[in-house]
Amino acid sequence: MSDTEDKASKGSSKTYEERVKAVNVISHPLASKKSTKKAHKLVKKAAGQKQIRRGVKEVIKGIRKGETGLAILAGDIYPLDVISHIPVLLEEKDIPYLFVPSKQDLGAAASTKRPTSVVLVRTPKKDFEGKDLYDALSKEAK
Fold first, then answer.
1. Which residues on adjacent β-strands are paired with residue 52?
2. Model-level pTM?
């Protein structure tokens, strides 16, 4: 393995603490390390059951249509103007939200190769297997 491949593999496996340093100013409430893992697990389960909206345009469209759920935003989005209006909109609609440190990890959990800036996990139906994760995270986000 060459030096450049070695550096590339090290670069993608940053720790939670390193990712928190790259977070922008408006990222509050920021999920703890344990909650971040729970959020990624919830997003992965919801993506498998098509209970998810990903990306700024799709999430905004869903919220305006009256969808509810738990919004998970990435904290390392620059420029800030891309997502700065979303927390205000979520608070107006009483939708709980929290920030996770990395858009790459959020995109990977949402089953896409692209980094994702925001994900809306829709309010789960009765047969959703991640309901306990959803309840725990929405309680923490409020």
1. 121
2. 0.87
